Amino acid sequence: MTITSKTRKFDSVKTTKSQKAYTKALDQCISYNEKLRLMVLEVLREECGRELASAARFSNHDFDWETHNAQFREDYGTTSLKELMRAAQALYGLNDIDAIRERRAKHRGIRNERMARQNMVIAQNALTLDDDEMEMD
Q1: pTM for the complete prediction?
Q2: Considering only CA atoms, which of 40, 36, 55 is closest in space to residue 92?
Q3: Contact by Cβ (8 Å): 70, 76
Q4: What is d(CA 84, CA 78) in angstroms, rounded to the nearest whole number?
Q5: In terms of Cα–Cα distance, which of 44, 101, 30, 38 is closest to 72?
Q6: Greatest Cα-to-Cα distance within the chain, rounded to the nearest angstrom
Q7: Cα 22 from chain centroid?
């Protein structure tokens, strides 16, 4: 089989594209400062959401967490770490990164407890359904 220059050209283009697409694993990771910024952003999102949800309950209004989360990330997604830290201190008394880490751990604990309760209810409902099916047989 004779290889034409067109085939060679196609193969070289394919190789070039695959080489450009390759990025080393560590180069794909975000910097430590960006990780901190994202952590502060998420803590502020959660704190703000809890505050707004509480106010909505008090006023007999609905609060949509998904809408809040999307809007918050859109509004503050590019805000600098310095500005986010300033807001965390001014609004929630979180004076340093350690206080923010502690609040994040608290949020995770609350979320894990809520998920465990939900899973327990689901499991109990499944058992109840199984018992009902057995009684019908």
Answers
A1: 0.71
A2: 40
A3: no
A4: 10
A5: 44
A6: 79
A7: 26
Predicted pLDDT of residue 12: 52
94 and 43 in contact (C-beta within 8 Å)? Answer: yes
Q: How far apart are the first and last CA of the chain?
A: 71
Whether the per-residue pLDDT at 106 is higher than 90: the answer is yes
Confidence of residue 18 (pLDDT cuts 50, 70, 90): low
pLDDT of residue 64 exceeding 70, the answer is yes
pLDDT digits (tens, 9 = 90+) for 29-52: 999 999 999 999 999 999 999 999
| Helix-helix angle 97-136:81-92, to 10 degrees | 80
The span from the CA of 124 to the CA of 97, in Å, is: 40
